[in-house]
Design brief:
- The structure is a single chain.
- With 190 residues, the chain is mainly alpha-helical.
- It has a single domain, classed as Rhomboid-like fold, CATH 1.20.1540.
- The chain is built from eight helices and two strands.
- Strands 1-2 form a two-stranded antiparallel ribbon.
- Helix 3 runs parallel beside helix 5 and helix 6 packs across helix 7.
- The two termini are 34 Å apart.
- InterPro entries: Peptidase_S54_rhomboid_dom, Rhomboid-like_sf, Rhomboid_protease_S54.
- This is rhomboid protease.
- It is an enzyme of class 3 (hydrolase).
- Its main location: mitochondrion.
- One of its GO terms (molecular function) is serine-type endopeptidase activity.
């Protein structure tokens, strides 16, 4: 079954339809509590990430993170045979958290219910990655641990390397994209 799904995903010309759910999952949540927790973390780290990246780059990274973390979740679920829904919202939020914690590791953080207990952002990121790695390895179903790990690793990679490799060199890519779109529109394509 896994082989058939992978072959379908990689060789089917209509596989573009599979990308829409991965993008839309960036805004999906399992429950009201899940959404509230994600929005609190996003609100807590949003000013820092926007200061680091700017509004446009933040939106691009956030949407990319949702797709990437959902894809990582799909791959992990196919590998383990667990076919549950994958939601990229938590993975995108983990990207934001990991990016800020990687860029500002000495920042002091606290847990909402225990504000008197503080720790560094770097330590928090290590603890979250360890927790999600254990959850993935041991098959815990508390969270989508694969999506969290995919998002965290993408956030760490992006602020370390991606900004220089992608964002600062986006002009040729954008120009090529516009040329390709113009050429396809002239041939009757959409």
């Amino acid at each position: 079954m896994r082989r058939v799904m992978f072959t379908y995903f990689t060789s089917n010309p209509s596989s573009k339809a599979l990308c829409s759910p991965m993008l839309l999952s960036t805004f999906s949540h399992f429950s009201l509590f899940h959404m509230a927790a994600n929005m609190y973390v996003l609100w807590s780290f949003s000013s820092s990430i926007v200061s680091l990246l700017g509004c446009e780059q933040f939106i691009a990274v956030y949407l990319s993170a949702g797709v990437i973390s959902t894809f990582v979740s799909y791959v992990a679920k196919m590998a383990t045979g667990r076919f549950e829904p994958s939601l990229g919202a938590s993975g995108a939020i983990m990207t934001v958290l990991a990016a800020v914690c990687t860029k500002i590791p000495e920042a002091k953080l606290a847990i909402i219910f225990l504000p008197m207990v503080t720790f560094t952002a770097g330590s928090a990121l290590k603890a979250i990655i360890a927790f999600d790695t254990a959850g993935l390895a041991l098959g815990w179903r508390l969270f989508d641990h694969a999506a969290h790990l995919g998002g965290a690793l993408f956030g760490m990679w992006y602020v370390t390397y991606g900004h220089e490799l992608i964002w600062k060199n986006r002009e040729p890519l954008v120009k090529a994209w516009h040329e390709m779109r113009t050429k396809n529109t002239g041939k009757g394509g959409g």
